[in-house]
Amino acid sequence: MKSFQHSKGEKRSAMSIEPSTSSKCIINTSKGRIDVELWARELPNTTKLFLQSCQGQKLQRFDNVRPNGTVTIVGGSPDEKLESEHHSRIRSCRRGSVGYDRNINRWFLASRECSIEDDSWILIGKIVGDSNYILRRIVDESQLDDHGKFVYPPIVTKTEVTVPYFDLDLGSLPQAGPSPPEEEKRRLLKRGGAKVKLRYEEEEEEEDEDDEEQEAVPLKKIKPPPGVKDKDEIDSSTRMQASVEEEEQVEEMSLREKETLDLLSQFQQRQKGRGNILNRGQ
Question: SUPFAM superfamilies recorded for this chain (predicted)?
Answer without folding.
Answer: Cyclophilin-like
